[in-house]
Amino acid sequence: MNWKLAARAEKMNPSVIREILKVTERPGIISLAGGLPSPKTFPISAFAEACAEVLHKDGQAALQYAASEGYGPLREAVAAMLPWPVDPAQVLITTGSQQGLDLIAKVLLDPASRVLVETPTYLGALQAFSPMEPEAVSVASDDEGVLVDDLKAKAKDARFVYLLPNFQNPTGRTMTESRRAAVSAATAEAGLPIVEDNPYGDLWFDEAPPLPLTARNPDGCIYLGSFSKVLAPGLRLGFLVAPKGIFPKLLQAKQAADLHSPSFNQRMVSEVMKEGFLGRHVPTIRALYKRQRDAMLAALEREMQGLGVSFNKPAGGMFLWLRLPEGLDAVALLPEAVERGVAFVPGTPFYAGAGDPRTLRLSFVTASAEEIGTAIAALADAVREQLAHRAAAEVQRQLAASAA
Amino acid sequence: MNWKLAARAEKMNPSVIREILKVTERPGIISLAGGLPSPKTFPISAFAEACAEVLHKDGQAALQYAASEGYGPLREAVAAMLPWPVDPAQVLITTGSQQGLDLIAKVLLDPASRVLVETPTYLGALQAFSPMEPEAVSVASDDEGVLVDDLKAKAKDARFVYLLPNFQNPTGRTMTESRRAAVSAATAEAGLPIVEDNPYGDLWFDEAPPLPLTARNPDGCIYLGSFSKVLAPGLRLGFLVAPKGIFPKLLQAKQAADLHSPSFNQRMVSEVMKEGFLGRHVPTIRALYKRQRDAMLAALEREMQGLGVSFNKPAGGMFLWLRLPEGLDAVALLPEAVERGVAFVPGTPFYAGAGDPRTLRLSFVTASAEEIGTAIAALADAVREQLAHRAAAEVQRQLAASAA
Question: Per the database record, which ranges form the Aminotransferase class I/classII large domain (chains A, B) (predicted)?
């Protein structure tokens, strides 16, 4: 048969890293690789009660086809929990916030459209945009987020800038208040729309992050949120909030993509969220993740001493960003680390342009504090091994040079 | 802000019919419009048991992120229930079979690619393909499906033909065994891939439909199935079966689209399907829908007598196709019908090319047999009214002509 692939599909390649990480699913490997919330935080009994209640009270409607916009009371709950005035009519319930990225790409990106992203940025966003064949352009970034001058320089004719201001995936960094103010002013002046992705914002450790960019200019932003990190990812529920002019297009794209997100799941979440459940539940997640982040920082201080490794101190979320000493390469390190029982994700796939091969992402939420300690010690071993290799190779090179 | 829409989004227009049908949600209207399965058929207590069991036995995994391919035991159950040898590795679980259409479009359609469809075809497929901006080409069709000669004539350079052989949406027609054999031979000869959509195949009334096209040439077909019509649509679960060469591309598109379908729902359905549940449950749906189809046929025979209306007799599924007498128009009839308390969907949106304005789709599954009787009587009234209007207009025209 003449199966002819679309040009975009010809370009899709199986991820080398995904293949390596498949190995990490074998027992005995401690994975700091995945972005999997700790299953200890899933409110299983609350879900069990909600399921029973929804099926008992409203089973036929919960199992029927439903509006593409989403379940009314859930849209209202989302609007009410956001820190700026949101009309529920602007809330679209999505099949995870990943789907929001797919819908935005369909509505806003033509082939070769320029879309601006952070350096580095969320890999899943690059994957979601890619079927629409845009050109993803990296905006220079530091520990506080994108650099405003570079953003201004690249703003012209870009369709939007994609930003993840809170506890970013992959770096764990947070955009400061002053940077937000500057980015908001610069994008408004340039007329550049923002797509603001905020799956981790509620997972702060000591203090809540600054106000979202969308709150500062709601007509210039599409905001994405998720229930995956505050309730559970396995329900696949997220949402977006869009300006009224853009909303109908996103809704039509949603209808064509999967008709609507599961009505049953929407009612379950709506039921669970009643009576301030998130207000009681989310602090327990914050406390757990903070303990695990502290365990990771302590282990890194202890185990990496003298190795020339640098890393940041995330104020929330799920990830920490680490940079290996000069001459090492995270992709080459991964099999060594897996050999020693620990997995991570190398940093390069998270860059739209050329990546820094010394970087890697560590998750502190899936493994326990004790496992994190063991894993970081193993990782330090792997780094030492790679450094020794490199030193040996250097000696070899010098011998060869002096013999020549 | 400079929100610039993608070209595909500029072309998206709110459906006029969708707007009219919003009116039909008001109480007192009997809707023969929607494709909503009868909620009486939803196995609510089986779902309640399955939810409790899944959360009790396997709650953490059911609520966690999961593989994009889908839940292993569900993929195996799907492979086992299909009437040809299927490797579970070829089964991709989707967020409703609608999502399967979106993924196929991403993987197989470039802008201006030709995709062949029936006359008429499923509107949701046209909507799912449309973001990839293909050219949808109607293949001439009769009561048995696409005409083989026209299919052959249009096969060259087409990416695939999209076929819905069982109790088609919108017409309710079924492709006969001889037509299947001829279509299968013609597409194999032309090297033309088939996308076979089969959401309704289990809903037969007197005898099972002939073997799927995919069973005749698995390497030349992608097959789409759904749990929406045999269990419940509100879980949003479907599946596709693809040749091994195409599967990895569809999987990557799936990952980018929503990471994976809800793990919780997949386990629920897997749990419900244990011990031959569908074998006991589906016959009850068939019996109900057959009674309601019979009620619709009887009402049409009774109420439409002498009006010049023609209609088919579907052997299964959810829909019946009706053609109004010459000079009438289904879009113009709709407000008249809604006025009298009945809604339907006009036929024209289901055509990729110019549609037959006299056609309309009636669903016999949502309303009860009694409501169907009332609704068809109201519809006949609306037809009579339109015919009277038309006759009056004709008299007027003749008077004006003779006066001139």
Answer: 43-379
Domain span holding position B86: 44-272
Q: Do A270 and A309 lie in a common domain?
A: no
On whether any CB of chain A is under 8 Å from the CB of B246, the answer is: yes
Find the CATH number of the domain harbouring A137.
Answer: 3.40.640.10
Q: Write down how long chain B is.
A: 404
Instruction: Indicate whether A184 and A301 sit together in one domain.
Output: no
Cα(A228)–Cα(A365) distance, integer angstroms: 13
Question: What residues of chain A score a pLDDT lower than 70?
Answer: 14-21, 24
The owner of tokens 């802000």 is B1
CATH of the domain at A398: 3.90.1150.10
Question: Does A305 fall in a domain?
Answer: yes
Q: Do A253 and B4 touch (CB under 8 A)?
A: no
Task: Tell me which chain B residues have a C-beta less than 8 angstroms from the C-beta of A60.
Answer: 39-40, 42, 44
- Determine the residue type at B239: F
Assess B335–A contact: CB distance below 8 Å, yes or no.
no
Cβ pairs bridging A and B (under 8 Å): 253
Q: Do residue B238 and residue B308 come from a single domain? A: no
Chain A contact for B44 (CB, 8 A cutoff): yes
Q: B275: exposed, middle or buried (C-beta count within 10 Å: 0-12, 13-18, 19+)?
A: exposed
Tell if the CB–CB gap between B1 and A191 is shorter than 8 Å. yes
**Number of C-alpha atoms within 13 angstroms, CB side, residue A84?**
16
Helix, coil or strand: residue B186? helix
pLDDT < 70 stretches in chain B: 14-21, 24
Tokens of B236: 């949003």
Same domain, B264 and B377: no
Interface list for A 184-203 with B (CB within 8 A): 188, 191-193
Contact between chains at A232 and B63 (C-beta distance less than 8 A) = yes
**Across the interface, do A234 and B14 touch by the CB < 8 Å criterion?**
no
- Which phi and psi angles does A164 have, rounded to 5°? -125, 80
Q: Coil, strand or helix: which one is A191?
A: coil
* Nearest-angstrom CA–CA distance, A172 and A347: 13
Per-residue pLDDT tens digits for A220-243? 999 999 999 999 999 999 999 999
User: What is the ipTM for the molecules in this complex?
Assistant: 0.95
Q: What are phi and psi of B346, to 5 degrees?
A: -60, 150
Which residues on adjacent β-strands are paired with residue B319? Answer: B363
Same domain, A93 and A201: yes
Q: Which of B4, B42, B96 sits opposite A159 (nearest CB)?
A: B4
CB-count exposure of residue A76 (10 Å: 0-12, 13-18, 19+) = middle
Domain count, chain B: 2
- Indicate whether B27 and B89 sit together in one domain: no
* Angle between helices A263-272 and A44-62 in degrees, nearest 10: 130
Q: Give which of A253, A9, A163 is closest to B6, Cα–Cα.
A: A253
Characterize the bridge pairing of strands B114-117 and B135-138: parallel
Q: H or E element: which one contains B283?
A: helix B277-303
Torsion angle defined by CA atoms of residues A175, A176, A177 and A182, in that order, rounded to the nearest 10 degrees: -70
Contact list in A for residue B115 (CB cut-off 8 A) is none
DSSP per position, B88-102: GGGEEEESHHHHHHH
For A354, which DSSP code? S
> Which chain B residues touch A318 with a CB distance below 8 Å?
none
Distance CA B221, CA B198 (A): 12
Cβ neighbours around A252 below 10 Å, total: 23
Q: Which residues of B touch A37 (CB under 8 A)?
A: 64-65
Give the Cα separation of A309 and A301 in Å (integer).
10
Residues B3-59: pLDDT tens digits?
999 999 988 876 666 666 677 677 889 999 988 999 999 999 999 999 999 999 999
Best probe of the B interface among A156, A249, A285, A363, by most B CBs < 10 A, is A249
